Amino acid sequence: MSWSRFLSCSVLSAAMLAAQAQSGSPTGGSAAPATGAGTGATTGNGGNTSGGRSGSLGGRPTPDFPNQLPQPGTDSSETRPIFLSGKVRMDDGSAPPESVVIERLCTGRGNPVQEAYTDQKGNFSFQLGQRMGMMTDASSGGFGSMGAPEISGPNGRGGINERDLLGCELRASLPGYRSSVVSLAGRRSLDSPDVGIIILRRLADVSGFTTSATSLMAPKDAKKAMDKARAALKKNKLPDAQKELESAVNLHPKFAEAWYELGRVQSMQNQMDLARQSYVKSVEADEKYVRPYLGLAVLEAQQQKWGEVKQLTEKVIKLNRYDFPSAFLYGAIANYNLQQHEQAEKLCRAGLDIDQFHSLPKMSHLLGILLAEKQDFKGASEQLSAYLKMAPKAPDVETVKKQLADIDGKIAHVNP
Question: Could you tell me the pTM of the whole model?
Fold first, then answer.
């Protein structure tokens, strides 16, 4: 039996990719469009999208990849301010070499929420849910973290509901480093705000980064234009943002991050050819800057060019396998459509190891399908069950439940 026939079909839009923000958030931060516009539809730092259009990918059914975001509680009376403070230190005890982003990530809810920056000494203090308006990043996202926006509190208002912190952790984000985490489960508004010390440890074999050194060389006017673009994005003024980004790259043609952001804004407005050109310009300006490679990957996915998607995701993984877990999912999807199922399975398994916060639940779904196709029904059942646990309100839950019931029935038949 072909288990792939159960898979819902989707073609990723460039907007979907651009709304993603996972590990490897930019230390400089950027502004996010309001819900509904994002590089899909991003909201602050949660990153988000409205989903893709239906269709067959490369002639083979492919998993749909909406964000599996459980909805927070809606009783605003339960929302009370929760303050947190602490320190970020390197594993030798020193302060970080630069400002570090503090992120909140909740199991099965997709993208991390960027809550605050550290000061020059590595200290931080903030109220949960009062986000900085930093921009969610396109490149870290994947098929499994798209769809509904991350919400800062009930009804999208500031503040956080205590029960919304179940399965949530706090971490520091600095390219090339791995962070220890602090569990937020059970934390209440009257608890001591001090969460202690978050440790950053340098990763080996990382040659690609989430920020570009070319930004440091940008002249003052180019940086000012970039700031104006971010402010326009906060207000969902895409044409204004595009105008400022065009000004930034004209003033500094090697401004890799500005080229990348311009590609994102162009993709939000369905200017796909221009977006592709901007992503290529970003790569040319700084080949170690990883984000535009994934921007290109989603454009190629729209065109069902799975060979190109495979090459681009392999490049990302080679440059930086730690900060871009979605590259494993994109790569797995590409290999699946190329009928290279063994490689697709390897990428799914490697991606699950990298995605320590389970922000891409669709990785488990795809792995479950791959295992079912090779008649490893026990393994398939485990993966589909994991997907349902991580994404209990996903749009395809009923379909996956039917898949799981069918698989479990086969297991029972073999082992009565």
Answer: 0.65
Ramachandran quadrant class, 116 (left: phi over 0; alpha: psi -120 to 50; beta: rest): beta
**N- to C-terminal Cα distance for the chain?**
21
Task: Report d(CA 63, CA 303) in Å as an integer.
Answer: 16
Domain range for residue 96?
76-138+151-202
Could you please report the per-residue DSSP string of 149-160? PP-SSGGG-SSE
- Based on the domain organization, do 390 and 242 belong to the same domain? yes
Nearest-angstrom CA–CA distance, 66 and 48: 9
Token digits for 359? Answer: 């922000």
Residue 313 lies in a domain: yes
What residue has token string 């907007």? 15
List, in order, residues 6 or more apart from 54 with CB less than 8 Å away: 9, 10, 11
Q: Does 61 map to a domain?
A: no
If we measure between CA atoms, which residue out of 87, 261, 75 comes closest to residue 163? 75
Neighbours of 53 (CB within 10 A): 10
- Interatomic CA distance for residues 7 and 368, integer angstroms: 11
pLDDT tens digit sequence for 9-46:
333 332 333 333 333 333 233 333 332 333 333 223 33
Q: What is the per-residue pLDDT across 135-156, written as a single tens digit (0 to 9) for each?
A: 444 343 333 332 222 333 333 3
Count of domains observed in the chain: 2
| CA 14 from centroid of its chain's CA atoms | 14
Answer yes or no: is 265 within a domain. yes
